[in-house]
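Progress report, Aim 2. The chain analyzed during this reporting quarter is listed below.
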Amino acid sequence: MNNQDQIKEFIQKKVGEKVSFSNADDIFKLGLVNSLFALELVVFLENSFGIQVENEDLDLNNFRSVDNMNDFVAKKTA
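Predicted structure tokens for the chain:
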């Protein structure tokens, strides 16, 4: 399973199987993420991909979509 699939699977489990979204969809605009879930996303990315999310990384654009999170993880692990 690639990084993108892992991220999507994590979000899908949290929002429920009946909710449909693409890897490019803004999950914040869709209302799928509240503040608690945003923190869970950060912890998930850190634990799953061995990265550390610094204060300067906490730009909403890094977490808006599966694609953005995948790009963020790729930059942090490069």
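The chain has three helices and no strands. The mean pLDDT is 96. These observations will guide the mutagenesis work planned for the next reporting period.
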